[in-house]
Amino acid sequence: MEPVLEVKNLTKNFGGLCAVSNVSMEIMPGELIGLIGPNGAGKTTLFNLLTGVYEPSEGLIEMDVDGKKRQIGGLKPYKITDYGVARTFQNIRLFKSMTVLENVQVAMQRNIRYGTMTAILRLPKFYSEERWVREKAEEYLKEVGLYGKRHELATNLPYGEQRRLEIARALAIQPKILYLDEPAAGMNPQETADLTNLIHKIREKYHLTVILIEHDMSLVMNICERIYVLDYGKMIANGTPEEIKNNEFVIKAYLGEEI
Ligand SMILES: Nc1ncnc2c1ncn2[C@@H]1O[C@H](COP(=O)(O)OP(=O)(O)OP(=O)(O)O)[C@@H](O)[C@H]1O
Ligand SMILES: [Mg+2]
């Protein structure tokens, strides 16, 4: 099996600051990967490179796109989205004046991929594009448990539900790789437990490769099959949760007495 994503010697400099320094990763299809490290370690910057928000200073990002290896580093975000990459943001980005349902519909219409387009073109005449988009959006809302709130304004949802709405928006673009930037931030233990189940469920159902940034170590250690650790922009470790918990460099840089 070929990796779905290969990061090779990736570097991002901001002036004199090296936020991501010579980072390499290899991710297999369907893996559930954790990305951890102290504040300012470069985790979000790495996601920004992987999703086209920033251009790499050096290095390559190779993604398997329909069996072909493509270098996606430096491509525009919409192009990377087209290849099947979706994300959520550390600072939630929703359209606050729109309803929950409209937020997902907009994500679908903005990011119509070939698969979606073909599906739309094949629709029977009586079945309008609008109705199809609405029904798909409703399906994703059911998936994340927000269908009952579809007519509420996004801004009126509690924080944890706004994070789940972001996941519905990400699913709406039918990705094969999903990046989640601190999905449990601001959630209580029950919401975090529900989120863990949700991530497992959508990974199975939509055959996703998931990479998540998290400071909640119970979630990371519980859910991730493999974990990468960043510190001052450098990847200092990579291994199973058990290996990471017992890695002396990781304990020193990040975990400390916590575990
Ligand atoms: N656009 C930018 N311009 C200049 N410096 C930046 C920019 N984006 C990030 N940085 C710097 O790069 C470093 C890494 O930041 P980043 O946000 O990637 O960290 P992080 O690991 O996501 O931290 P946190 O856990 O707090 O979210 C920080 O020192 C940050 O100030
Ligand atoms: Mg961050």
Helix content: 25-40%
The total of beta strands comes to 10
Lateral arrangement of strands in the main beta sheet: 6-7-8-3-9-10
Radius of gyration: 18 Å
- DSSP helical segment count: 10
| Terminal CA distance | 34 Å
> What fraction strand?
15-25%
Shape summary:
globular
Please trace the helix and strand order, writing H or E for each element: EEEHEEHEHHHHEHEHEEHH
- The pLDDT mean sits at 92
Task: Give a quick account of the main beta sheet: strands, pairing sense, barrel closure.
Answer: 6 strands, mixed
Keywords: ATP-binding, Nucleotide-binding
Protein name: ABC transporter ATP-binding protein
Overall description:
Keywords: ATP-binding, Nucleotide-binding. The chain contains 10 helices and 10 strands. It has 259 residues and is an alpha/beta fold. The strands form 2 sheets. It has a 6-stranded mixed sheet with strand order 6-7-8-3-9-10, sandwiched between helices. Strands 2-1-4-5 form a 4-stranded antiparallel sheet, covered by helices on one side. A hairpin with a 2-residue loop joins strand 4 and strand 5 (68-71). Helix 3 runs parallel beside helix 6 and helix 5 (129-143) packs across helix 6. Bound molecules: adenosine-5'-triphosphate and magnesium ion.
